[in-house]
């Protein structure tokens, strides 16, 4: 049983109603007052909808979160393009680092002063594989985002000088969160008959090798501090609970097993790169383990629902994407899932605590972000 696609003309009609308002609201996003002295000069973000802060507001795509009820619990109380009711993990981490929320790259004019505290290249629908998420419309793939990183470095060299640009990238934190769409909108959909070409372990290896290649490219741009966020247990997401007709809310094991194998391979790859690349401080954070801890201990974290999306339609709220405020629950703080695939602000806060210091569960190896930024070389 498959979800009927939203008619494109109708969808883009609604986008036209929200776009101008959402884009104007991005300019109202201000830095919270009294930020401490930064632990890093900048935060640069690469990834998909788990960290998109407004990139796709500028693209013709189904993957947009620039309309209510997205952002209703955000600092501005309005949609910004974030796929959540509130903040993302990187928003919480930016504040921990003493930095402002990271603006989307596509919303900037390219001036050096706009780049020096970091930018967000992430695009909803993006994947490690170029074709991943293409069924959703326009997006910026990992390769395209890496090109933007290179462009940023060149602009910084021109504006600051070669030495200062290299120093900025070396001391900054890069955060990568990508891979979900390679499963949800590519492998599991069997796009281009991919499953006949790659067994699950072979596909995972393809993803790992591609990410490894891009990490080396970042290293060659003088990047040394990188957080690589693993894929969360999407087999527990409302969409797959609905699609696989989960009876009691049990997760889809065949999906989660593939994610576990990917994250294991990613951990080893990151360890290997740290051994090979002088001065590299790459860290892998296992979003699967961190999320599973929340699902298993929901009472401790104050969650009432671990299966139903706060905003959605159909069983578990997993059949139809979040489109209107009327589709959303009143209180998202007691829900793990905000929509079909994305967690609530409350979950993002917990995961950010873990990435920062392992406050609730140790999920980052070989070090958390606090250790990374206070490490003396």
From TrEMBL:
Family annotation (Gene3D superfamilies): SGNH hydrolase
GO BP of this protein: lipid catabolic process
Single GO MF descriptor: hydrolase activity, acting on ester bonds
Pfam families in the cross-refs: Lipase_GDSL
InterPro entries in alphabetical order: GDSL, GDSL_Est/Lipase, SGNH_hydro_sf, SGNH_plant_lipase-like
Signal peptide: 1-24
Statement: the UniProt record of this protein carries the keyword ATP-binding: no
Keywords, comma-separated and alphabetical: Hydrolase, Lipid degradation, Lipid metabolism, Signal
Stretches of the chain forming a coiled coil according to its record: none
Source organism, top-level taxon: Eukaryota
Similarity-based family: Belongs to the 'GDSL' lipolytic enzyme family.
Protein name as annotated: GDSL esterase/lipase
């Amino acid at each position: 049983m498959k979800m009927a696609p939203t008619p494109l003309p109708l969808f883009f009609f609604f986008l036209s109603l929200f776009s101008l308002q959402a884009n104007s609201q991005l300019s109202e996003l201000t830095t919270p007052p009294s930020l401490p002295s930064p632990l890093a000069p900048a935060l640069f973000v690469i990834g998909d909808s788990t960290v998109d802060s407004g990139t796709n507001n500028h693209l013709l795509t189904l993957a947009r979160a620039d309309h209510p009820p997205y952002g209703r619990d955000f600092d501005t109380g309005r949609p910004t393009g974030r796929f959540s009711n509130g903040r993302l993990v990187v928003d919480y981490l930016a504040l921990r680092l003493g930095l402002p929320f990271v603006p989307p790259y596509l919303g900037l004019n390219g001036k050096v002063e706009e780049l020096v505290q970091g930018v967000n290249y992430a695009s909803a629908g993006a994947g490690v594989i170029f074709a991943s998420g293409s069924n959703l419309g326009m997006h910026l793939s990992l390769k395209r985002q890496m090109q933007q990183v290179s462009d940023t470095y060149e602009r910084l060299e021109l504006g600051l000088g070669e030495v200062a640009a290299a120093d900025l990238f070396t001391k900054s934190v890069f955060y990568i969160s990508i891979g979900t769409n390679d499963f949800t909108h590519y492998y599991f959909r069997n796009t281009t008959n991919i499953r006949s070409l790659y067994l699950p372990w072979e596909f995972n290896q393809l993803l790992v090798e591609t990410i490894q290649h891009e990490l080396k490219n970042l290293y060659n741009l003088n990047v040394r501090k990188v957080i690589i966020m693993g894929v969360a247990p999407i087999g527990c997401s409302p969409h797959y609970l609905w699609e696989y007709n989960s009876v009691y809310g049990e997760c889809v094991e065949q999906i989660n097993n593939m994610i576990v194998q990917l994250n294991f391979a990613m951990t080893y790859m990151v360890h290997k790169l740290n051994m090979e690349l002088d001065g590299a401080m790459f860290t892998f954070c296992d979003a699967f383990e961190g999320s599973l801890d929340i699902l298993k201990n929901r009472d401790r974290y104050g969650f009432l629902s671990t299966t139903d999306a706060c905003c959605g339609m159909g069983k578990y709220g997993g059949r139809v994407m979040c489109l209107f405020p009327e589709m959303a629950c009143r209180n998202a703080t007691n829900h793990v899932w905000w929509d079909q695939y994305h967690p609530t602000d409350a979950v993002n806060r917990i995961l950010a605590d873990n990435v920062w210091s392992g406050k609730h569960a140790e999920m980052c190896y070989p070090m958390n972000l606090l250790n990374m930024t206070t490490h003396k070389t």
